[in-house]
Amino acid sequence: MSRLAKLLFLSLLDQIVPRSASQLTGSQLKVSGQSVVDQLLHLSRYSVDPAPAVTRVLFTEADTAARRYVKELFQDAGLKMHEDPMGNIFGRWEGSDSSAGAVMTGSHCDAIPLSGLYDGTVGVIGGAAAVKALRQAGYAPAKTIEVIMFTSEEPTRFGLGCIGSRGMAGTLTPEVLDARPDENGTLFKHAAQQAGYGASSHKAILDGTLLKGKRKVDAFVELHIEQGPRLEAEGAAIGVVEEAVLATGAPDTVGTAGRWDLSPNTVNSVPREASLEVDIRDIDGARRDQVVAAVRKAAGAIAGKRKVRHEVEVVNQDDPATCGSEVTSAVAASVKDLGLSSLQLVSRAYHDALFMAQIAPSGMIFIPCRHGWSHRPDEYSSPEAIENGVKVLALTLARLAGQGVDVDRSEL
Ligand SMILES: *[C@@H]1O[C@H](CO)[C@@H](O)[C@H](O)[C@H]1NC(C)=O
Ligand SMILES: [Zn+2]
């Protein structure tokens, strides 16, 4: 073959031959950060509040419309759709090895009142974009890849976050779902039914949702905005959320008192009853429990001093998850492939990855967001940051999902 013919042939081959993970390089991935941003902007229109604010509460009209759009994007990426009774949406790309476990990615699209358009959504729309880029690069997975939109990562409607991933991990009970109606007394199962999901009971919903022990999941990786300032401050493109940083000090304990309810809550009466919801997090479970104990003690002391009755109820108490090292190393290798700078970070916020970590090695890819702002209308991540994140996600999925068809080019 002449040199020119060889080059032409190779370039043709580039277009048509499925490539294995080891052959796939960052330069072969075509991702447009701007087109992902356009899709994020489109999604943000499904909101109760006007742009740039996003308010999208579980199973409301805005959420249902957003779900329709997400399914369109999944379809466009060639993913095969499946939804469970809880409203988790799965887009499936079948691997060649049907006996292997699945490699999963995903995040959430619900948004607390008056938040922004990047939190969660980047991991869902970015997941579909990563799959599309892999397909276009000719990659074919050995293991099945699934992109997930998790139901209700935000606790807005039912006072409990990560409902979809808790359900999948098998850490949610029917009693917990039953005990927590929304502000209008609607139970999860009825809201789910109204949105076209659900089953007769919470138990049936969870049975239809459960992954634990039913399906083999080999890995989970979530792409998300950092919701903290470190990447931007240090000029790093990617945060690799990593287990090695686990044993740090007190700054990793985070507490918020997010929800007050007074009853009666009127201008001209002294409340008879007050309730306060406190959220205490730590990557060290024992240290978190010490803080909780201190809060209980203080509540008791204050109640004694004021001569009022008090009660403490634990809504949920989840073990901190550490990331699976195979996922973190796949992320780190992909970052290196792309020549990007990175930092190892600890995640202090709740994410679906926390619950997926209970069934599979899991990790997270963080991208910078302006000033670390999140959950507000001016939340912002640049198209470049998103493009980097999607590329890292795509290469990570390819690494985890393994070899496609190997091509021996040595004879060309
Ligand atoms: C509860 O009812 C009020 C009044 O009808 C309505 O505005 C609100 O959206 C409802 N909340 C939910 C979560 O559906
Ligand atoms: Zn989120």
UniProtKB/TrEMBL annotation:
Q: Which organism is it from?
A: Apatococcus lobatus
Q: What is the name of the protein in this document?
A: Uncharacterized protein
Q: Note the superkingdom of the native organism.
A: Eukaryota
Summary of subunit composition and partner proteins: Homodimer.
Q: Does the keyword Protein biosynthesis apply?
A: no
Which SUPFAM superfamilies has this protein been placed in?
A: Bacterial exopeptidase dimerisation domain, Zn-dependent exopeptidases
Named cofactor requirement(s): Mn(2+)
* CDD domains, A to Z: M20_bAS
* InterPro entries for this protein: Amidase_Cbmase, Bact_exopeptidase_dim_dom, Peptidase_M20
Enumerate the Gene3D superfamilies for this protein.
3.30.70.360, Zn peptidases
Keywords carried by this UniProt record: Hydrolase, Manganese, Metal-binding, Purine metabolism, Signal
UniProt entry tagged with the keyword Hydrolase? yes
Q: Which Pfam families match?
A: Peptidase_M20
